[in-house]
Design goal:
Number of helices: 3
Radius of gyration: 25 Å
Strand order of the largest sheet: 1-2
Strand content: under 5%
Shape: elongated
């Protein structure tokens, strides 16, 4: 087996090949940990009884997230976007090596 000498450029390229997915995985795991370990917010709500209304209006609408959970969800979203871009890039590189068929 003949080994070709590796230049610093190819060595650097090989080391950077998986830097994006590793960074994205770290961000994804950090985001999940932030969401799971965030302190639970105490629900402080109120109830208003409107005059002549048939229903009760509560002040809680939607999901209330702690700031730590918002950061965690944001990190996870950025990580998933990074992984999607990396996969698309790698698939594009793989398709570039194939010869184009003549029409």
């Amino acid at each position: 087996m003949i080994s070709t000498p590796s230049t610093p450029r190819t060595t650097r390229r090989r080391s950077l090949r998986f830097a994006v997915p590793v960074l994205a995985d770290v961000l994804l795991i950090a985001g999940i940990i932030l969401v799971v370990t965030a302190p639970r917010l105490q629900v402080v709500g109120w109830t208003a009884y409107a005059p002549l209304a048939q229903n009760v209006d509560t002040g809680i609408s939607g999901v209330t997230l702690a700031p730590q959970q918002i950061v965690g969800v944001s990190l996870a979203a950025v990580a998933l976007l990074m992984l999607t871009g990396w996969v698309a890039y790698r698939l594009g590189l793989r398709g570039r090596d194939r010869p184009v068929a003549a029409a």
